[in-house]
Design brief:
337 residues; mainly alpha; elongated
Length: 337
């Protein structure tokens, strides 16, 4: 029933809005609020607003003489609430008429004047109730500088650390930001003896390539990547320790090339598979045993009975060949129980 009643009400409204507009109704658009005109003419607020927008009539509330008399007697925000206007509209009207802003003059007490230049302006404004602009103007009038609370928070022990180590280390030690350390050091005129950019001396440059980058970085107290970048820039090759250099190839090692798989030769000689393949290609030796010999039934039965590395060692095949053959036969990998 409620839906039927609402439908009938909306139908009646549409019928009322369909009737023609009279000259009196159109001349009244914009003179009062849309709601007041809707009650007066028996139309909906939506119809009044649509007709007013169609006629390009802007809803402007005209200022009355009694409204102008209130301007400047109170703050703009209070007058806006009283006249039901926006604060911007009230401020615009007051400035247009040349009416000064309402300001309740409050004399400064002696204890309030003593606070100027000692505490921040924002704190004084909250404590005394004076506007922030008034606090700044009064402080400047008395010639008192703006207080810097950051300078008062530093202890003599913290000031002694400035310049004795890099700014980042000082910041980490006293739990401050690096920017605050730099500002404090510059204000006290303390030079930066630990520049973030390493300055290379001819003696340090001569050591590049003579030792490892890590060892030289620890000796000159700078990050290893700085040493590596400087060495690469000058085209100096990296220094390798004698323990890292492989001994020359012996005749028995060369005789193994091509006869056994590269992985087996690498396991026996202790060299990398890449070095084995490189040496074999340089000597022109072909790989005779490529590990692709046919699988026997006995070899296939041993797959999955132990670790792949152990089966590869027993059968003389590579681990890759063992894994591939086991996966081809769908044999699960061995797991210790």
């Amino acid at each position: 029933m409620n839906r039927i009643h609402q439908g009938k009400t909306q139908a009646k409204r549409r019928e009322r809005d369909k009737r023609r507009w009279t000259v009196e109704e159109e001349q009244s658009l914009g003179t009062k609020s849309d709601r007041a005109l809707a009650r007066k003419f028996g139309r909906t607020v939506t119809a009044i607003a649509a007709r007013r927008h169609g006629k390009h009539i802007v809803m402007i509330r005209r200022w009355r003489p009694e409204d102008d008399k209130v301007l400047g007697t109170r703050p703009d925000s209070q007058i806006a609430k009283l006249l039901k206007r926006s604060a911007y509209n009230v401020q615009w009207r007051r400035r247009k008429l040349g009416i000064p802003c309402h300001y309740e003059h409050r004399p400064w007490a002696g204890h309030e004047l003593d606070m100027l230049g000692v505490k921040p302006d924002e704190e004084i404004a909250r404590f005394t109730g004076h506007p922030l602009k008034a606090v700044r103007a009064k402080r400047q009038e008395l010639g008192k500088p703006k207080p810097d609370q950051m300078m008062n928070y530093w202890s003599p022990e913290e000031d002694k650390l400035l310049g004795t180590m890099p700014d980042a280390e000082v910041a980490k030690k006293i739990k401050r930001s690096t920017v605050s350390i730099i500002k404090r050091r510059l204000r006290l005129g303390i030079p930066n003896r630990f520049s973030a950019r390493h300055v290379w001396t001819p003696k340090q440059i001569a050591l590049l390539g003579a030792m490892s980058d890590e060892k030289l970085a620890a000796q000159i107290q700078c990050p290893p990547h700085v040493v590596a970048f400087k060495r690469k820039t000058l085209g100096i090759p990296v220094c390798r320790a004698r323990s890292e250099r492989k001994p020359p190839w012996t005749q028995p090692e060369i005789q193994l090339l091509g006869k056994l798989p590269d992985a087996e030769v690498a396991r026996r000689t202790g060299r990398s598979i890449f070095s084995i393949a490189t040496r074999r290609s340089l000597l022109g030796i072909e790989l005779k045993n490529r590990g692709n010999r046919p699988w026997t039934t006995g070899e296939e039965k041993r797959l999955g009975t132990g670790p792949d590395s152990e089966i590869a060692r027993q059968l003389g095949r590579t681990i890759i060949a063992i894994i591939y053959r086991r996966a081809h036969l769908k044999i699960p990998a061995w797991r210790a129980r």
